[in-house]
Amino acid sequence: MGVQLRSLTGAFADCSNLKSIDIPAAVTSIGNRAFYSCSSLGSVTFGENSQLKTIGEAAFRSTNLKMFIVPDMVTYIGKQAFYNCNSLTSLTLGDSVEYIGDEAFMNCPLETLIIPASVTQIGKGALEVSYMTLTSIEFVDSTGWYKTKNVSDWNAKTGGTEVDVTDAAANAETFVSFTNRTYYYYKA
């Protein structure tokens, strides 16, 4: 019986010739900088019944991904996980994602995004895009959302100001706005 690969951390960073990768179902963690600056990486597929739970900091930063489907078991998307993925127009979040880190999708030309009911924290600048292509952010569960500039309040999920996230078009304007990039969002 062979050893199964469970984690990738910095494994392929700066590998400019990597165009696609198939990640085995047994992998539970794509660690920090796993595919950082793989400038030709345009396709990532996951094995059937993927066990992936975490996508680490800058894991896919500065890649050429055009679309990405976050596997259903993923709960954590780290800081700058997809930062500067200048071709990423389509993103589907799995139904278990709870945490989206700071600047996770900054500078990605996403067009629409659905935030699953499982999400309880969105880091500052997570959805800020310089392309202004994001026209809709729909929250599956739009009740009980707050914003704060204090990271301690964010982590404790207390002390913020309640925000209305029921209008998908208005959400897009709010979350991509430079003036709102200093806010952390959480669901109480």
Brief description of this entry?
The chain has helices at residues 151-156, 168-176; strands at 7-8, 20-23, 29-30, 43-46, 54-55, 67-69, 76-77, 90-92, 99-100, 112-115, 121-122, 136-139, 145-148, 161-163, 184-187. It is mainly beta and 188 residues long. 39% of the residues are buried.
Could you walk me through the main structural features you see in this protein, from its secondary elements to its overall organization?
With 188 residues, the chain is mostly beta strands. The protein contains two helices and 15 strands. The protein has a single domain (1-140, 165-178), classed as Leucine-rich repeat, LRR (right-handed beta-alpha superhelix). The protein is globular. The longest helix has 9 residues, at 168-176.
CA-CA gap between termini: 46 Å
Instruction: Report on the biggest sheet.
Output: 9 strands, mixed
Order of helices and strands: EEEEEEEEEEEEEHEHE
Rg on CA atoms, Å: 16 Å
CATH class: Alpha Beta
Assembly level: single chain
Helices and strands, with pairings:
Elements: E1 7-8, E2 20-23, E3 29-30, E4 43-46, E5 54-55, E6 67-69, E7 76-77, E8 90-92, E9 99-100, E10 112-115, E11 121-122, E12 136-139, E13 145-148, H1 151-156, E14 161-163, H2 168-176, E15 184-187
Parallel strand pairs: 1-3, 2-4, 3-5, 5-7, 6-8, 7-9, 9-11, 10-12
Antiparallel strand pairs: 11-15, 13-14, 13-15
